[in-house]
Every structure is written in structure tokens, then in C-alpha cells.
Amino acid sequence: xxxxxxxxxxxxxxxxxxxxxxxxxxxxxxxxxxxxxxxxxxxxxxxxxxxxxxxxxxxxxxxxxxxxxxxxxxxxxxxxxxxxxxxxxxxxxxxxxxxxxxxxxxxxxxxxxxxxxxxxxxxxxxxxxxxxxxxxxxxxxxxxxxxxxxxxxxxxxxxxxxxxxxxxxxxxxxxxxxxxxxxxxx
Length: 186
Ligand SMILES: O=P(O)(O)OC[C@H]1O[C@H](OP(=O)(O)OP(=O)(O)O)[C@H](O)[C@@H]1O
Ligand code: HPA
What we know:
Pfam family, one: Pribosyltran
Helix content: 25-40%
EC number: 2.4.2.8
Protein name: Hypoxanthine-guanine phosphoribosyltransferase
Low-confidence stretches: none
Bound molecules: 1-O-pyrophosphono-5-O-phosphono-alpha-D-ribofuranose, hypoxanthine
Enzyme class: transferase
Strand content: 25-35%
CATH architecture: 3-Layer(aba) Sandwich
Distance between the termini: 19 Å
Keywords: Glycosyltransferase, Transferase
């Protein structure tokens, strides 16, 4: 049986956080993050985790720039959902090119769910010799299935234990550019 399309699930999905709420949450995150890096001699390496992290990372980057914090950009792509609504093994599709030795690294992603992705990514950055690796996520999902050893240093909003999409997150590779976070009907 083929899965329903975005157009079929959207009418019955719930809006969990609207755009105004997310704008305010990202501004609050920037208020906290900017002072944490303000006295560093070198800009943090700001690593966007593609694809889902892109809209959030862009908005956070502007908010940090507004607050006087310069960033050096890079990106990586690690995926374990691959258009499905449950995860499997992590596949690295792109690794950052910028040397990390001695650098402070700030990872930006859309969601911390079970944590496999960010745990692996953070460990990889540490193995590259990063001096400090912090995690900024737009959303944290509330459940007790998180793997040990990973938490977010900076969080925008909490989401319920349902499949969520929008604001970077996909429903079967659709809906990433919806400007709100939705949850599939249970
Ligand atoms: O905490 P976890 O359970 O590991 O899930 C979180 C990860 O899953 C999503 O990526 P996905 O694998 O869907 O790749 P994508 O961003 O390219 O869609 C999301 O962007 C996070 O990186
Ligand atoms: O609930 C989710 N939605 C979209 N992508 C995800 N990746 C992990 N969990 C989710």
C-alpha cells in the first residue's frame, strides 16, 4: 500500500508550534548562544546538519549575526530516516571539509529525537579534534527512548512523541518548507 501524500495528511495534522512561536524561540536561543561565544578569538564553526537543519540553521545564523556573533559555515549530511517515519542505520552522505582541530563547533539541527544522529555526529567532531562541540536544535521530542550520551545545549521548543514535520522536517521528503511544526494525526 502506498503511503498517503502530504496533501492527504496535512488537513488532519495538528499545528504544534506556529511560525510566530518558532521565531520567538529562535530569537531566545540566539540571546543565550551569542554571549557564550562572544569573547572567543575565532568564530565558531557553525555546522548545519542537512537537510532538516537548514531552515532553522539559517534563521539562527541571522539572529546570531544580529547579535554581533560571526560564524564560519560548514555543513554535513547524515540521515537515518531517509524519507521514512522511523529511523534505521545512520548513513553519512557528506562530511564537513573544514578542519576541526582546536575549533569550537556549534551543530545546528531541526530535531533531537532518539539521539542516534547527533550522538554520532558529535562523536565524529570530537574525534576530529574539536575543542568543544555544542548542539543547538529547534525541537526536542519528549519521550524516554533517547540514547545515552547526547543532549542539546540549546533548545527552541519541545514537541510531543508523535511524528512531526515542517520547518525543515519532512513528511516522506515533503513539507520541509512549511513555516510551522505539525504532528501527524495519531
Ligand atoms: O534523533 P534521531 O532519532 O537520530 O533523529 C533526528 C535526526 O533525524 C532527522 O534527519 P533524517 O535522518 O530524517 O535526515 P534528513 O534531515 O535528511 O531528513 C533530523 O534532521 C535529525 O538529524
Ligand atoms: O518526528 C520527526 N519528524 C521528522 N524527522 C524526524 N527525524 C527524527 N524524528 C523526526
